[in-house]
């Protein structure tokens, strides 16, 4: 959760003033260093490494390789820093040679022994921050290693240039970025320390899943355990899970989505035409972690197969009668639950990511060719009743 912590701190006013002033002094020093013109990245490497170490308050040696820095003399020279930093991250955690100092990246954490790296690689998804510096530009990324490396930007490229015309605000903004990173790295340090060095040589299945394992249903905290991914994709966002013993170890589906039509889902669930929706809301209810527009959805898990057209049409009409649209009626989102009796009565609709009020909700960007060709729509078009019915006819 160190990445969510970093993003939350960037948007918070709770950073202690004395800590921010400390970061400000080093931030301005880094700005002056980065503003110098250089044609040799090795000339800048040591000064930058030392300043960043002081900024993060973690000079070597330290516990884990939680921060990796890749520096280039300028943008576009000898490769792109964030891409090469990603490669260095993957190399650090997978190569078998105990001597890793030959990497081109500047590692702000102590190099771990081969035994330590193998232990952490089995125990967790090896979260790390990657800092890319190119001339007077800096970007911060987050990386994890479940099955393959996944790297995402936590900031855009930020200008480190030192200009009097910008006044103090620019330096203060950079100081906040670095202080947020410093506190998040402290959290990451504690995360690694919790694993220690146990005698276990087995791979922990938790390393393949998100570290979000609970939600607040307004009356109590409900905890759950992931069982398996439900998508064949390294960037899977949908998982089968089971609730804790206090909730009967019921199997549920946990999804992470940018948007969700909870009203439409609850309406069909009340008519027995969709799985029960247990939770739809922010990932972090207390605001300590920030995940942008990403939400968590927890629903009943359905055992069954797909599809019955007329039953689907009837369920869609229930939505339309309340001026709601689904937007994504196609085979994978229609389930016939196991059991006896009429298949139509056992039909359930799932996946309400695009659902909402007709005339207001829009299709997302990057639509599939199937949706484009079937409906004749473009990215970000308004979703209509007719679109739903056309998708029903195409089942």
Description:
With 395 residues, the protein is an alpha+beta fold. The chain folds into two domains: 2-195, no CATH class; 213-393, Orthogonal Bundle (Transferase(Phosphotransferase), domain 1). Helix content is 33%, strand content 20%. The protein has helices spanning 2-10, 17-34, 41-55, 81-94, 114-123, 169-195, 262-270, 309-321, 369-375, 385-393; strands spanning 67-72, 106-107, 128-134, 137-144, 150-153, 158-159, 214-216, 221-229, 238-243, 251-257, 277-282, 295-300, 304-305, 324-325, 334-337, 347-349, 356-357. The strands form four sheets. Strands 1, 2, 3, 4, 5 and 6 form a six-stranded mixed beta sheet that branches. β8 and β9 form a beta hairpin. α1 (2-10) runs antiparallel to α6 and α2 packs across α6 (169-195). The chain is elongated, with a radius of gyration of 25 Å. Residues 60-64 and 98-110 have low confidence and may be disordered.
